[in-house]
Amino acid sequence: MLIRRICVRYEDDRKVCFVPEAGEEFFSQDDAHRLVGMLHKGSEALEWGLSSSQRNPGTGPYDTGAV
Predict the structure, then answer these.
(1) Which of 26, 47, 39, 46 is nearest to 66 (CA)?
(2) 3-state class of 52 per DSSP?
(3) Is 20 exposed, middle or buried (0-12, 13-18, 19+ CB in 10 A)?
(4) Using an 8 Å Cβ cutoff, are 28 and 51 in contact?
(5) What is d(CA 11, CA 43) in angstroms, rounded to the nearest whole number?
């Protein structure tokens, strides 16, 4: 499956879209997987109301690649 854009719509109808790196038409599988991981981790923090000091990096099924 080829992915050109990943968009998230908020409850108040705001929207944010992620696009591949400059010069790339599609997301690589690794990039798409990392983006899903970051969205998953962020949504968990929002759902549970966790502060940054309470989050456990790298404990989910996704590797965000974040440092």
Answers:
(1) 39
(2) helix
(3) middle
(4) no
(5) 13
- What 55-62 contacts at long range (C-beta under 8 Å, 24+ apart), as own/partner pairs, is 61/37, 62/33, 62/34, 62/36, 62/37, 62/38
Phi and psi (nearest 5°) for 18? Answer: -105, 135
pLDDT digits (tens, 9 = 90+) for 4-54: 998 888 888 999 898 998 889 999 988 888 888 888 887 777 777 756 555
Which helix (DSSP H) or strand (DSSP E) does residue 9 occupy?
strand 6-9
Cα 60 from chain centre: 13
Q: Within 13 A of 64's CA, how many CA atoms are on the CB side?
A: 13
Task: Enter the tokens of residue 38.
Answer: 């970051």
- Using the structure block, give the residue that is written with the tokens 């997301």: 27
